[in-house]
Write a structure and sequence with these properties.
By secondary structure, the chain is mainly α. Helices cover 66% and strands 0% of the residues. The chain has one domain.
Length: 180
């Protein structure tokens, strides 16, 4: 044990030490879905968010890690939406063929010819997820967005107070879920 108080004396040194928790075990709690995401990508993302936020001390670092997690999850929402659309588009040829066979069977006429124009129209229709999926995505994305704003505001206020600047006691967030 050192008698001089130990830790770093400069602001830069304190910021560096505040990140030690990130280097020693934080990745074990990383919000990474092993089957589709890589821990290395999370760590790179986390380091970039930390570098952008320049936290000082434990609490600012924790808020910054929370921000990184929310941003990571928001990225995943966009990937989920793209995957849902891709699955529908991949199934479209089978759906159109089955639909044409059914129509021919019901009407007794030959199956309608599928033109490029008709395929493009059907592709355009399927570029937006079905209502139920879209509602779920929108609700989840809105929830994460509100969490992100609240956490960013808290971090900014904390950093302003640390620097001796004025920080508002409260902020009015007028965003909300769609239709509210």
């Amino acid at each position: 044990m050192r008698g001089d108080g130990g830790g770093p004396k400069t602001a830069k040194g304190k910021r560096t030490v505040s990140r030690n928790a990130l280097k020693h075990g934080l990745s074990s709690e990383a919000p990474v879905v092993r089957q589709v995401e890589r821990i290395e990508d999370w760590e790179r993302h986390l380091e970039a968010v930390i570098a952008s936020s320049e936290p000082d001390g434990y609490l600012e670092t924790e808020l910054t890690v929370r921000i990184a997690g929310i941003l990571w999850r928001l990225r995943r929402v966009a990937l989920y939406e793209a995957n849902k659309i891709s699955v529908v588009l991949d199934q479209m040829p089978e759906y159109l063929a089955a639909s044409a066979r059914y129509g021919a069977k019901v009407t007794g006429r030959p199956a309608e010819e599928m033109t490029l124009e008709k395929v493009e129209m059907q592709t355009g229709i399927r570029m937006i997820p079905d209502d139920e999926t879209l509602k779920g995505i929108t609700r989840y994305e809105s929830h994460l967005h509100r969490q992100l704003l609240q956490t960013l505001h808290e971090l900014e206020a904390m950093q302003a107070r640390r620097l001796g600047e004025h920080s508002p006691l409260a902020r009015l967030d007028i965003t909300g879920p769609p239709g509210s």
